Structure formats: structure tokens, C-alpha cells
């Protein structure tokens, strides 16, 4: 550790001790770990229902339009894909895509943080033929309305998730 970083940490701990925080943290290490560390607490099993509860699906296109119908079909495909992942049905040559893989693709996190996410995930649509894209900062997923065929949607989602995890 560099002298610069050590000086910053020493100053932090000195300030923490002035208000009794350092002593409190050291005397309750096990409880603090349960709150702050995924590895130390029993992880909650992510379910399809939990995942979909964290999503907000945005409307696309005018009510009654073909674009609106296609976006609703693709939204249904996304929900079906989430539940297929829960059931282990999203297989590819080298393995299976699980819910934690979708979560990592969308957020950069393979599990829900102890404090949860600040916002719900937003599912958006585009009329451009493209692969699914994400913004891990804003928790946005953008899907092409051209993915109305579930088999095609399934294959494209798996390829996008497997080809671009971005965070390990």
C-alpha cells in the first residue's frame, strides 16, 4: 500500500475512533459482515418473480400500433426468458444461463446487494434491429422490437449475456 493511501486510511480510522465507530466495528465484526458481505450471510435465492418485480417495462409506440404490439410481444418474451432461466432451460454449448447471469448482464452484480438497488430495472424498446444493450449505471435494458419470435429472442439474449458479461 502506498504511503499516500496509508495516510488516508490512518486518518479515517483516527476519525472513526473519535466517535467510537472503530471500537464498535471491531467488537461486532460478525454482525457487520452479515450486513455488508454477501459471502458471510445466507444468500437469498433469486427467483423469476423477484427479478420481474425489480423491472419496469416502458411502453413503446402508439396504443393500437404495430410497434406497440411488437414491444408487448418482446416484453412477454423477456418475462418468459427470465422464467426459463429460473428453470434451467436457457442452455447453450458451454453451459446454462441462470438468473444471476441476467442480473450481472444488466447491473454488473451477480447477486442483489444487501441494500438492494436504488432503482428498478427499466426495460426499453427500439425499432432498430440490434442486440440487447444495457446501461449498468442506469439499470436500463434496451430490446429490439424485431425480437418477437421467442426462439430468436432466446438465442439472441443468451448470446448477448454470454458474449458480454463485462464484469467478473
UniProtKB/TrEMBL annotation:
Domain spans labelled HECT: 101-157
Keyword field contains Lipid metabolism: no
Pfam families for the chain: HECT
InterPro entries: HECT_dom, Hect_E3_ubiquitin_ligase
SUPFAM superfamilies for the chain: Hect, E3 ligase catalytic domain
Molecular function in Gene Ontology: ubiquitin-protein transferase activity
Name assigned to this protein: HECT domain-containing protein
Source organism per UniProt: Mytilus coruscus
Amino acid at each position: 500500500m502506498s504511503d499516500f493511501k496509508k495516510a488516508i486510511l490512518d486518518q479515517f480510522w483516527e476519525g472513526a475512533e473519535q466517535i467510537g465507530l472503530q471500537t464498535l466495528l471491531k467488537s461486532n465484526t460478525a454482525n457487520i459482515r452479515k450486513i455488508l458481505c454477501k459471502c458471510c450471510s445466507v444468500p437469498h435465492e433469486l427467483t423469476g418473480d423477484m427479478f420481474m418485480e425489480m423491472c419496469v417495462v416502458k411502453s413503446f409506440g402508439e396504443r393500437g400500433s404495430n410497434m406497440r404490439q411488437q414491444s408487448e410481444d418482446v416484453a412477454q418474451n423477456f418475462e418468459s426468458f427470465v422464467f426459463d432461466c429460473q428453470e434451467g432451460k436457457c442452455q447453450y454449448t458451454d453451459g446454462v444461463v441462470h438468473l444471476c447471469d441476467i442480473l450481472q448482464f444488466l447491473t454488473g452484480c451477480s447477486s442483489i446487494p444487501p441494500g438492494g438497488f436504488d432503482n428498478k430495472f427499466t426495460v426499453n424498446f427500439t425499432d432498430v434491429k440490434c442486440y440487447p444493450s444495457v446501461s449498468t449505471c442506469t439499470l436500463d435494458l434496451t430490446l429490439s422490437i424485431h425480437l418477437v419470435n421467442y426462439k430468436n429472442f432466446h438465442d439472441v439474449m443468451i448470446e448477448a449475456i454470454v458474449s458480454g458479461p463485462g464484469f467478473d
